[in-house]
Amino acid sequence: MDIPLRTHATVQGRPTLLRYSRTWDTGISSIAEARDAVAALLARARPAPGRRPVQDAQLVVSELVTNAAKHAPGPCALGLELLADATALRVTVTDTSREPPRRRPPDPGRIGGHGLQLVAMLSRGLEVTRLSNGKRVTATVPLVPAPAG
Question: Is the pTM of this model over 0.85?
Fold first, then answer.
């Protein structure tokens, strides 16, 4: 089931919220499509984020949906939500595995297995919520530099 990119008006002149959601019946069919959804949503953000934060958000989405595709059979979903002040993007991936993602220790000699390290470096946190039929993984990717101090 596709739910297209849409804008939600908020109350009393606050900025509109931009959201995107997509579900796949049999696993992620296109990780590139998920990255494209990030770029399309962030292109509509005001103020517009710089190129690097958009790339960071695309990498986080790519890593999280890749993990869902590799480790969870069955349906999965991607949710993107631009926070009201356009300072961060909340990324949510839901899948059918109840096993939480495991961050491996860094190993420059290993091929693969570095995705959660990247997600942790690029986001303000990684939250895993167990659901009755799987789990939800949420990361919040900053779109503006952290305040000094």
Answer: no
